[in-house]
Every structure is written in structure tokens, then in C-alpha cells.
Amino acid sequence: MPAQLAGDLAFFGAGRNALPAWMLEEAESDFEVYAVNVPAFQLWERLQTQWRVGGLVGETGLDYGVAFQIMDRMRPVPEDPLQLLDQLRLIESGYLAEMGRKRQRSSSRRQHAGK
Question: How many CA atoms lie within 13 A of 96 on its CB side?
């Protein structure tokens, strides 16, 4: 479990069992953001409170209306907002796919633990 997460749980008096298993896993690797992708990554970071959430599946996608509002305020202003949106959608797609895999692994572990 990441140290920051352990500290946060302790602060609130919660234990490891308060979170799904996938949240307790360490990050698989560090990554580097190429300069050409920095604006898309910055937009991604700013949108982390703007998820559309659906039922039991959790996040279903980002609120693109807010994305365009943020792009209007970015400096320097993006030359091609639609290209930036396409880059954002690639990041979002990868994120949603990975979260789906983590939920499946967590669900599979719970099913096997109950047998």
C-alpha cells in the first residue's frame, strides 16, 4: 500500500479493509509525459473532479463541457482544441480500461475468497 494512502487511512481511523483491493496496489511503474502531451495531461489533471458516474460501474467518462471551459482559460491557449480533446479522450480511455481491469481483478479475488 502506498505510504500516503496508509497515512490517510490511519488519520481517519480506517484500516486496509475500508478500501477495494485495487486501491491498495502499488503503482506498476513511473511514467514520463512527452512535451507534446503536456497540455493534454494538464487538462486531464484539472478534470479529475469532473467525472460522470453511473451506478455500480463508477466513472463512465469526463464532462467534456467543462473541458472546453478549462481549455478557454489555459495559457497558452491551445492552437487546436479538438486535437487536445482527442488527446484527452485517449488518456480517459486508457484510464477507464485500467479501472475496469482493476475492478474485475478485485471482484475475482472476492469471489475466490468466498469459496
Answer: 17
CA distance 79 to 82: 9
Grid cell locating 27: 503503482
Distance spanning both ends of the chain, measured CA to CA:
25
Mean pLDDT of the chain: 85
Looking at the predicted structure, is the pLDDT value of residue 28 above 70?
no
Crossing angle for the helix pair 64-73 and 81-113, to the nearest 10 degrees: 130
pLDDT at residue number 40: 95
Report CA 40 to chain centroid distance, whole Å. 14
**pLDDT > 90? residue 6:** no
Phi-psi region of 55 (alpha: psi -120 to 50; beta: other; left: phi over 0): left
Q: Where in the chain are the domains?
A: 1-30, 32-113
Tell me the whole-structure pTM to 2 decimals. 0.67
